[in-house]
Structure formats: C-alpha cells, structure tokens
Fold:
Amino acid sequence: MRNKTTIIAACAMFIVTIAVAAYARDTNAERAVQKADATQTAKVELTDNGFEPSSLKLKANVPAKVTFTRRTDAGCAKEVEMKDYKIKRDLPLNESVTIEFTPRKGEFTFACAMGMLKGKLIVE
Structure:
C-alpha cells in the first residue's frame, strides 16, 4: 500500500509541475504579445501657427504612431519630413496621416519640406 501511495503522490507532483510550467509559459507568451502590441501615439496639427504641439516626448524603442493633420492651406507646409528616420509624407488638407516608426534615443526634428516650420521629437 505504501508503494501505491508513493506512486500516486509522485504522479500528482508530476502533473502539478507540468500544469505550473504550462501556465507560466502561457502567461509569459501573453505578456510578450501585450508588450509587442504596446504602441505610443501622438497627434500633431499643422496650423497657421506651425506644428501644434511643436514638440513631442516619446519613449525610445517603443513603436510609435504619430498622426499629422494639416489644417491650413497657407504656406509651404504641404508635407512633413523626418530626415533622421528617412520619412517624408504628403499632408492633404484636413486629412489625418499616421506615420509609424520606432524612435531611438535623442532629439530629432520634423519639418515641412522647406524646413521653415519645425517641430521636435524628444526621445528618452
């Protein structure tokens, strides 16, 4: 009877160990998916006063979606350019344009094509 009890206890411990390992694996996988889905967002409007807000704070190495909307037809600001990221997009009047990228640490500018209107990305 003692051997039977020992075998049952060993089997129960084995099953518990497998269940705990499976739970930990699933939990870690879920965390990885949540982390991968984490995206920082920001909105910038281009008005008669320039880019508003004129600076954005972003976290380094976290995917970002920055949405630009041009609200004015005055001046040269019909596109936005982020030279450090090799990004250039047209900004149709009153249409939102979302730029997706992963920022790296530092300070970077975004500007109209002629560089007359500028904004700043501060990435920490």
In short: Confidence is low (pLDDT under 50) at residues 16-20, 29-34.
